[in-house]
Amino acid sequence: MMTPTELYALAPFIWLSVGVIVLMLQIAFSRSLNGACWVTNLTLLVALYSMVGHDPAGIQVTPLMRIDALGLMFCAVIICGSVVTSLLARDYLKQRPAENEEFFLLLLLATLGACVLVCATHVASLLLGLELLGVALYGLIAYPEKGERSLEAAIKYLVLSGAASATLLFGFALLYAATGTMDFAILADKLDTIQVNSNPIIVLTAAAFILSGLAFKLSVAPFHMWTPDVYEGAPAPITGFLATVSKGAVFVVLLRWFIDGQLYEFRGIILGLSAVAIASMLVGNLLALRQDNIKRILAYSSIAQFGYLLVVLIACGTLTESIPLAREAASYYLLAYIITTLGATGLLTLLSSESARERDHIGDIVGLFWRRPLLSLGFTVAMLSLAGIPLTAGFIGKFYIFKIGADAELWALMSAVIVGSGLGIFYYLRLVFNMTKNPRQVHALPQQTSLEGRSVLLLLTLLILALGVYPQPLMDYLSAIL
Amino acid sequence: MLQNTVLIPLLPLLSAVILIATAGRLPKRLVATLGAGSVGLSAILVAQLSIAWLDNPVPYSLHLWTWMSVGDFQPGIAFYVDGLTVVMMSVITGVGFLIHLYSTEFMQDDDDYSRYFTYMNLFVGAMLILVLADNLLLLYLGWEGVGVCSYLLVGFWYKDPANGAAARKAFIVTRIGDTAMALGLFLLFTELRTLEIQQLAAAANLQWEPGGNLPILACALLLGGAVGKSAQLPLHTWLPDAMAGPTPVSALIHAATMVTAGVYLIARTHALFLMAPPVMLAVAIIGVATLLLAAFTALNQTDIKRILAYSTISQIGYMFLALGVGAFSAGIFHLMTHAFFKALLFLAAGAVIHCLHHEHNIFRMGGLRTRLPVVFWSFLIGSAALAALPFTSGWYSKDEILLATWTMPWAGPWLWAGGILGAILTALYSFRLVFIVFWGEAKTEPDRQPEWRMAGPLALLCLLSVVGGFIAQPLDQVFPAHQPEHATGAVAWITMGIAILGVIVAYLIYLSKQWSVEAGLNSPGMSRLREFWYSGWGMDRFYDSLFVSPYKTLARIMRNEPIDQLYNGIVQLSLWLHGWLSDQQSGQLRRYAASMVVGLILLVAVLAGAR
């Protein structure tokens, strides 16, 4: 039987579930895009509000979930990401008249899944969250009825994600066979004893399977190949959601599992992760070099970004003292990445909201500076942040990576980070450069996007700059709660 | 009244800012009013200031603000006004205003009227900062400022690549000197912990021994800067090429003001130079060598502006000679009179060029005495002053220099003899110019006459060139009281009359043709010598083969350098890898799944293998 404290701790999840049911009923009785959007946002805001006042020390609710500061913070980030996505999606969907209300239903479900995921402390809750998120995403990716590309993307994602989930499950099964538990905390204790005496090959094989499954969701090399196709085929707002909320939640799970389960003590895991990280940084950046589709560029860029992020985990293996800093760094980097990528895909959504076509080709943004100076400025800031230029949030994140990598003396990884960053500057700035080209071809288009959409983008831009110029408050906050 | 000092450099700078901001959109009349008017107002302010200051001639400084304060290093934006400053400011704004007025007509047909006055005003502002600065850092700001303006104005007609090359040459050659000067400033600051000129003198007296290594090194470095800016040996080669700029620019920057900045610098820091006798001697020797070299070269030139350019180098050589023998007042006196008559000569030459369809070659002129009377009289008076004919302004100043030179211990007579030879040559080449251009048969007909805006400045400068020698300079407190004695007796008489000899020789050769020098000049040895002189003693060729060509060769080699190849290789490698990886993104599900399986197998192998 649950105590009231535990119920209270679960409030955000309960509110999200209530919102899903209310929205479903509402759609059954009256279809209205605006109505659905507002119910969604109301639900998200209520869920956000219900997180206020929780005990930052954390509370274990059933063996499945632990509502602690890290989980709550990323729940909040995920919910905010959903708010941004739903606001931008409304304009986008208005331009594509169809039965669009279920889009928000799926979005709420995916949000719920992601929130469960970041709080999961048990294999069951992990899979529950992952599948809730994944199944909702299949629907979201394929949402535009007429888009052949979307359908293709959704099928690809469905098949490959199914395969990845199966790998994950098999890994957990092996782990269960070796240890007899599915609780992360107990698992950690068992692994400790296993390591010293008996043959851990079964555990390591399990770890390899689990890492592969998660690596697919994080789209790091060589599990990355689906990313560009799916990002390109998905509707623009969902591209942003996929790249930020979905990936971010999976990374938080990995962070928990990796640190709580003390996986960093296995040399093989560190070695395998290093290979994956280096491959991701190089492959992601190299693939983006001459790409002309902006969504694909962002897909490749996200491959590389998660390669950088893995450095933080690897550093825990060689330098155990850096674990608190690693948690702080990973959280900061992830936050900066989410804000920045939401800003970048937000612009694509806004542009695509002005026509029935997806406007994601590099030609679509040529000369944008002369038509939409403010939006272009926001996009430029996002690109600079992804490239890690000072005075943006991305720079502080990169700085953390360098600091941790140098402390742990991971020179091979650091050289890959440097090479990757160098390559990255080329294609990020190429986009900026294209926006400034051809000032003469100025077609002042009527402003069709809503005020909310534009102000959300402006807010994201300001956040990128604020976190880059004055990062200290967030740093202090992170190091205090983690 | 004294607070208005700030306005003096500010007015031209302000006008420059307005002209920059309007970017050539103002009508020409307004540009002319702004450009010349701002300098005119400055000139009026300088006149008021001088009158007020002469009532009570006490040096004062005006501290505006501290630029930055880092430990000992507290350079102020501060002005210092004494007799020397007053003289320099008067020359800069007075002559400057006349040249600006002249320019309003001279540049009338130019499309870039506004740009021209922007640069000119900027120059006047920078030059005023240079002479007003109370510390060497602010002086350096003005010093570099005038350098940039000189560069911009020499290359003013930038569409001709030759002009751009001349501008670059002027900038780079002076830059060599400037670098030496900057090193000198570093040395002064690290040793004496200040850059304020008055404190420097006091600190040097306290800490340094006269004739020691440090003062010699510091002064030699400062001398490097002065030599570059004032076009003295061995950094003089830029000035003749700098004639590519519009003629009023040559008059203002490359004759009257900027090129004398080196003289000003040495005079301003004379307290340091007096502690380094070897450097003083070097200054005098550089002066004599330069004045002779330039005079011989001027004798063989055919371009009217190049003759005047070499004569400028030569006259600044006299100023250096004066400084070197310790006759600082005489040097500044010659600086002032030279500003008058050389500006006059350049403006008159400009009028000739202006009226003769941009003709520069003196052998295609002739007979202009009757056709351009105003210009003729201007040129005659200017040449007389340049040749230092008795009772012209140049005569007074040059005599002072030569008479002071004679009394210098042991080297004096030799330096004097060089100066005297130079004086004969000066008279010879200046009257060669006058006789060829203004007498004889006309070869090109003028198509216009100068109007009042050109004729007026010419007339006023004529007046100054004649009576300029009577202007008393308030320099008594600036320089040490015991300046060199003047020679007397036969030496004095020779000194005073020698120029007449040169004029007579010129008359005999070029006008009455009683002395035929053709045969002698065309003999093989002589013509080779003339060629050598014509090319400026082969200095340009020498520098070309010693510095420019090796540098260019090196640059050519470096253009395809191996290091670049490495970077290109990286680019190629990246592109190749990109292409290869892109081919793997085939869009086929089975290949994607296969990649996952490969990844999984590799991970299992690594994890299980590396335990």
Task: Describe this entry's structure for a reader.
The complex is a heterodimer of chains A (482) and B (611). In chain A, 76% of the residues lie in helices and 1% in strands. Chain A has 20 helices and two strands. In chain A, strand 1 (59-61) and strand 2 (65-67) form a beta hairpin. Chain A is globular, with a radius of gyration of 21 Å. Helices cover 73% and strands 2% of the residues of chain B. Chain B contains 26 helices and two strands. Chain B has helices at 7-22, 28-55, 83-106, 113-132, 136-154, 161-192, 197-207, 213-229, 238-241, 247-256, 261-268, 270-273, 277-300, 304-324, 328-355, 368-371, 373-386, 393-406, 412-438, 452-467, 490-511, 518-522, 524-534, 539-559, 562-584, 589-609, and strands spanning 60-66, 76-81. Chain B has a two-stranded antiparallel ribbon with strand order 1-2. The radius of gyration of chain B is 29 Å and the shape is globular. The interface between A and B is medium-sized, with 41 and 27 residues.
Keywords for this structure?
heterodimer; A: 482 residues; mainly alpha; 2 domains; two-stranded antiparallel ribbon; 2 strands; B: 611 residues; two-stranded antiparallel sheet; globular
User: What count of helical segments of chain A does DSSP give?
Assistant: 20
Strand order across the largest sheet of chain B: 1-2
Rg over C-alpha atoms of chain B, rounded to the nearest angstrom: 29 Å
Let me know the largest β-sheet of chain B.
2 strands, antiparallel
Strand order of the largest sheet of chain A: 1-2
Number of helices of chain B: 26
Beta strand count of chain B: 2
Mean pLDDT of chain A: 89
The helix-strand sequence of chain B is: HHEEHHHHHHHHHHHHHHHHHHHHHHHH
Assign a percent range to the helix content of chain B. Answer: over 70%
Helix content of chain A: over 70%
Give the structural class of chain B.
mainly alpha
Rg calculated over all Cα atoms of chain A: 21 Å
Report the largest inter-chain contact.
A-B, 41 and 27 residues
Beta content of chain B comes to under 5%
**Secondary-structure element order of chain A, as H and E?**
HHHEEHHHHHHHHHHHHHHHHH
| Low confidence ranges of chain A | none
Which overall shape of chain A is indicated by the principal axes computed on the Cα atoms? globular
Question: How far apart lie the N and C ends of chain B?
Answer: 89 Å
